[in-house]
């Protein structure tokens, strides 16, 4: 590589690292004070950068939130890639779900609640949340379809049955400092396992009487 | 009733009605603009009252949020009372769950997300959320215990298995304007039904491998 090309690459890496650094600082600010109370000035202080410098990377607070969401999606894509290379897709799916819900920090879960609430008020954030949800849905349904153990398994219906549970685990993680995701994750895995063999969703009762 | 007693009662009813009116206005403001962006001035404008008049009822924005939460709890208590008077507790439990999740508006669900996110930052709101959750937990576990159909049913474990699902239905309601809670509520009822006969929570798999 020429010295010039190396310098360009260093600059690119430097810019990417600076972006990461700003996103880390933003995450810390948003969690501590909430999205609305955080200003670009707070963010600059947390990142030890000048506000002008921050604006070279993100032109608004909203752009920072979208950047955080994009980073989440990229991290998810890395997990997915690892899974798709693996031989035993089912074991990897179960392992990835466990890792995701055990490793999500309370801070990240709180930020997710903020973003969900904001999605209804801010169309750009709403579209981003919808896109992320739709990608996750498409991918999980395809995965269920690939590893189902019975023709009775309806991958889309299985997804609908477990999706609220996954969102609820994130809420629970945000609410309690000492939350143990173990029982809920084990239940999620067992539900997916039952669903792959066609035993879930359970047949519906009458909504009014529950019979 | 004496005229004086009647006047006292009218004043009381008037004050209660005024409080309700302020809470309705607050709900509209919080949903539209979020908790943080709403000021007591906005609230006064929405309620068509002077800010000074609002402060006679609530001394801070936080007090308004606590008032909203208290109203939610009271509404829940009315449902619970209706249930406890009914003969067939099981049918009423199922019907009340269905009604709650079908009738919760998107606005109320979004507000709940805001309150959950704020719970981690504001100790008064955190304590209120925790108290509400604990009351719901205690009551549902007692209800499961009263109507279980098998000694194999572990009411506390059943609650832990379905609690995240209930939170997740609220998140889903907040996210999509056209959300249909039907499938998730039917699944919740079927899970409770299975749990009452001891079939839920499902036996846990190995968290890492999912076998």
UniProtKB/TrEMBL annotation, chains A, B:
Top-level taxonomic group: Bacteria
One MF annotation (Gene Ontology) recorded for this entry: transcription cis-regulatory region binding
Keyword annotations from UniProtKB, A to Z: DNA-binding, Repressor, Transcription, Transcription regulation
InterPro entries: BetI_C, Homeodomain-like_sf, HTH-type_TetR-like_transc_reg, HTH_TetR, Tet_transcr_reg_TetR-rel_C_sf
DNA-binding region boundaries: 39-58
Acetylation recorded as keyword: no
Pfam families: TetR_C_6, TetR_N
Domain HTH tetR-type: 16-76
PROSITE patterns: HTH_TETR_2 (PS50977)
Gene3D superfamilies to which the protein is assigned, alphabetical: Tetracycline Repressor, domain 2
SUPFAM superfamilies: Homeodomain-like (SSF46689), Tetracyclin repressor-like, C-terminal domain (SSF48498)
Name of the protein in its database record: AcrR family transcriptional regulator
Lineage of origin: Bacteria, Pseudomonadati, Pseudomonadota, Alphaproteobacteria, Hyphomicrobiales
């Amino acid at each position: 590589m020429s010295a010039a090309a190396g310098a360009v690459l260093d600059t690119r890496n430097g810019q990417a690292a600076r972006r990461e650094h700003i996103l880390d600082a933003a995450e810390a600010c948003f969690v501590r004070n909430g999205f609305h109370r955080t200003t670009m000035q707070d963010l600059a202080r947390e990142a030890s950068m000048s506000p002008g410098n921050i604006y070279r990377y993100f032109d608004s607070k909203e752009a920072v939130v979208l950047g955080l969401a994009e980073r989440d999606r990229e991290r998810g894509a890395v997990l997915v890639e690892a899974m798709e290379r693996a031989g035993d897709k089912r074991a990897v799916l179960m392992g990835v779900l466990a890792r995701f819900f055990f490793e999500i920090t309370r801070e990240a879960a709180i930020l997710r609640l903020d973003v969900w609430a904001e999605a209804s008020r801010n169309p750009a954030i709403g579209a981003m949340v919808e896109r992320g949800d739709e990608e996750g849905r498409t991918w999980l349904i395809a995965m269920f379809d690939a590893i189902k153990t019975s023709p009775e398994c309806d991958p889309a219906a299985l997804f609908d049955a477990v999706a609220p549970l996954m969102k609820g685990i994130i809420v629970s993680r945000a609410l309690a400092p000492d939350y143990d995701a173990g029982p809920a994750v084990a239940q999620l895995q067992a539900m997916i396992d039952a669903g792959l063999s066609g035993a879930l969703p359970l047949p519906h009762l009458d909504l009014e009487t529950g019979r």
